[in-house]
Specification:
This protein is 24% helix and 22% strand. The protein is an alpha+beta fold and 297 residues long. The strands form 3 sheets. It has a 7-stranded antiparallel β-sheet with strand order 2-11-7-13-5-4-3. A 4-stranded antiparallel β-sheet has the order 6-12-8-10, with helices on one face. It has a two-stranded antiparallel ribbon with strand order 1-9. A hairpin with a 2-residue loop joins strand 3 and strand 4. The structure holds ligand 6CS and fe (iii) ion. Ligand 6CS binds next to strand 5, strand 6 and helix 6.
Amino acid sequence: MTTAPTNLDPYASRHVDTPAIVPRVDPVVYGSAADGPLDESQLTAYEAQGFLVLGDLFGNDEVATFAAEVGRLRACDELRGRAEVIMEPGADDQVRSVFYVHELSQIFNRLAVDERIAGIARQILGSDVYVHQSRVNYKPGFTGKPFNWHSDFETWHIEDGMPRMRALSCAIALTENSEFNGPLFLVPKSHLRYVVCVGETPGEHYKQSLKDQHYGVPDETSLTELVDRGGLCSAKGGPGTVVFFDCNTMHGSGGNISPFPRSNVFMVFNSVHNQLQAPFGQIPPRPEYIASRKPRQ
Ligand code: 6CS
Ligand code: FE
């Protein structure tokens, strides 16, 4: 399918046969240091790099409670077989992710409104926020599979109808995230440019992409260009380490052949001024457990 890039949508993607890199036309930080809790240097670093790693937001006991809840969700019989539970590709006994945890779990329901993360999200996004998506990624030892390189926003724009880049993810490490067990890889400064991907989104793409994503994945030339400019960073740290990253920061992670699991809980905050419209990829909207269209105020 070859159609001319539309001038109406600065973030059109999967509509042309050749990839491209176009500029971001939205701010990164919408608030200011005066709004707190991040100080000027933290906001400046987030704006420049596209992510910020904080090591001391949650106490060990809290993280242990989150980790126990993650274990409960994974073992919960009534959840098995539900759409929110994503199994690893080719391993129907290995849970890869559980989505919608802010609604399935009282503990993560409270975490979603915890000022220590929601307050930072409001400051960066410059408005009230709501949870666009929540999930736990398990990445079990020995069998945890990779997450291909991608910009979340490219998927959320094309498949969920997220209009502009005014959202962010907050990833809380529930286990050690080391160089050995498949840590989150981020490309610094990649949030400032948008990679136009090729390929036509398959029907009900999420049934495949949440297991192993192949559409909305940048081409190697574009990815290399982003890395040449910004380098690579792996978000290593102990349990309780929190990574805030912009919706358009290029990221991914390798497989986990170590004996140690790499579990993270993700809360994705969207500005209330950026609520979902019809998917820009002109495809049916994804289900509520992946992309919230009824945000709780
Ligand atoms: O499609 C999505 O919304 C999900 N996919 C990835 C690889 N990251 C964001 C989100 O979990
Ligand atoms: Fe992602």
